[in-house]
Write a structure and sequence with these properties.
Distance between the termini: 22 Å
Radius of gyration: 13 Å
Order of helices and strands: EEEEEH
Strand content: 35-45%
Helix content: 10-25%
Structural class: alpha+beta
Number of helices: 1
Number of strands: 5
């Protein structure tokens, strides 16, 4: 991923660990808000098809020396700001 602020064109897949086990996800986008990067993941099945078109996960995203990591968004206020920004990005994409 060369620029974390642009939309991901290829279907890049990651596996995340949840309480119920592992979940395969497609990276929808990575964007910056208030000097923090965020990643949006959509759960997919074994064939890469969305499990639910309306379901996605948003995490804090960190990149350091070629290593990638994600972290939960803790506060409701931060989640609201990030969700609003993601909705704005979706709106811009749908108008292009």
């Amino acid at each position: 991923m060369s620029n974390p602020n642009e939309e991901i064109d290829d279907d890049v897949m990651v596996t995340i660990e949840l309480d119920g086990g592992e979940l395969d996800c497609e990276i929808l986008t990575i964007f910056e808000l208030d000097k923090q990067d965020y990643i949006v993941l959509m759960p997919v099945d074994d064939n890469g098809e969305p499990l639910n078109d309306t379901s996605c996960y948003i995490y804090r995203y960190y990149e350091n020396d070629g290593n990638y990591d994600i972290d939960n968004i803790i506060s409701d206020e931060e989640y609201e700001r990030v969700s609003k920004k993601f909705d704005e990005l979706l709106e811009q994409t749908s108008h292009q």
